[in-house]
Amino acid sequence: MEQTKTLIKAYNQASYPLIGHGKRNVQVLKEALEQWDAEQDSDMYGNGAIIENFEEKMAKQLGKESAVFFPSGTMAQQIALRIWCDEKGNKKVGYHPLSHLEIHEKDGMKELHHLEAVLLADVERPVLLHDLIGLEEKIACLLLELPQREIGGQLPEFAELKAMSAFCRERGIKLHLDGARLFEILPYYEKSAQEVCALFDSVYISFYKGIGGIAGAILAGDRSFIEESKIWKRRHGGDLISLYPYIIAADFYMERRLPHMKKYYKEAQELAALYNGSEGMKTIPEVPISNMFHVHSTAQKEQLETILIDIAAKTGIGLSQSVRDKGEDGSYFEVNIGDRYDAAPKETLFEAFRLLDNKLQQKGERE
Fold it and tell me: Which residues contact 251 (CB under 8 A, 6 or more apart)?
């Protein structure tokens, strides 16, 4: 634990930390608020121009009839699945074994809504059409996460996605998009948000991941679905008296960051190539298909942490703030590219990787 704390400190003190957009501090909100008149009325319990205008804007952007702003994606997605299951009279939901609902939400979907998970595919790849064709259990809804974060941001090809959408519609299965990072995959698909979302009955997106806002989410779908979700939002306590700080930040950073998603995607490919050229390291995917990927190393967690700390001290490049243990197989960490990456001088970045490769080679020789 002490080493992990030291790595976090080294990363935070590095001149050029490479991950994300920047620090999550009060400045994030202050910068967004500067664009607004101090006399602007806030939203109140889900009503008011500031929230309604933003919801309408997002519905259009996603190509859906209607949308509603939620304080969290966890709340939004559980509600979406509950509505579809109630409509179908079937409590079973299909999704990937490493879905956020399965591993990060303390069984909220199961305990709060009494829904049942049907796990599809395996832990190393995304859900594909043949997983649905071979499905023995009847499900009310299928949730697809694009990209699948816990396996490095992998996702199916667009033709495969279209085939899964057609399969669901033919069999009356509702299709929900966990699009927490939807905008990050559009450069790879070479599609608009509307084109991707047209394949789904309901869509969730996050405003604090690739967009870099404070918090919050949008749930979009047809009008009757959204009206039902508003009722559940109230039941969950999601109608805070005001949500405007989240909405203002979401809108501000969407306008700033969406035009750069292709740039982040290309930079992720550039950085992944540097990792793949280092001793005992590989990225998943080998060539990133969004702005994120995972870096796997044959070095043990403690060994890799020590190396990353030293690189940050000697070059000012912060490669990661945390490393996860893979037991005898080594270790890994997650990378997501945002505004910070471009700030690092290329020669300094290359020097950091020369040092990384050298240290990993020395480790291998000692072993």
Answer: 32, 54, 57
Which helix (H) or strand (E) covers residue 324, if one does? Answer: strand 324-325
53's CB contacts (< 8 A; 6+ apart) are none
Q: How far apart are CA 199 and CA 205, in angstroms?
A: 15
Whole-number Cα distances in Å, 59 to 144, 155, 185, 327: 20, 24, 19, 45
Q: What is the pLDDT of residues 177-231, one digit of tens each?
A: 999 999 999 999 999 999 999 999 999 999 999 999 999 999 999 999 999 999 9
CA–CA dist 235, 82 (Å, integer)? 13
Residue 292 burial (CB < 10 Å; 0-12/13-18/19+)? buried
Determine phi and psi for 153, rounding to 5 degrees. 85, 25
In this prediction, residue 9 carries a pLDDT of 95
CA-based torsion, 325, 326, 327, 328: positive or negative: negative
- What is the pLDDT, as a whole number, of residue 366? 72
Positions in the chain short of pLDDT 50: 1-3
List 324's β-bridge partners, or say none.
Answer: 332
For residue 152, give the nearest of 273, 19, 268, 285 by alpha carbon: 285
Check residue 5 and give its pLDDT. Answer: 63
Q: Which of 211, 260, 219, 188 is closest to 78 using CA atoms?
A: 219
C-alpha span between 69 and 64 (Å, rounded): 14
- List Cβ neighbours of 81 (8 Å cut-off, separation of 6 or more): 93, 101, 109, 113, 115, 141, 143, 176
pLDDT digits (tens, 9 = 90+) for 292-307: 999 999 999 999 999 9
Work out the mean pLDDT of the chain and round it to a whole number: 96
What DSSP letter does each residue of 230-242 carry, written as one string? HHHHHHTT---S-
Compute the residue count for the chain.
Answer: 367
pLDDT recorded at residue 36: 94
Side-chain-facing half-sphere of 221: CA atoms under 13 Å: 26
Q: What is the DSSP string of 173-220?
A: -EEEEE-TTHHHHHHHHT--HHHHHTT-SEEEEESSSSS--SS-EEEE
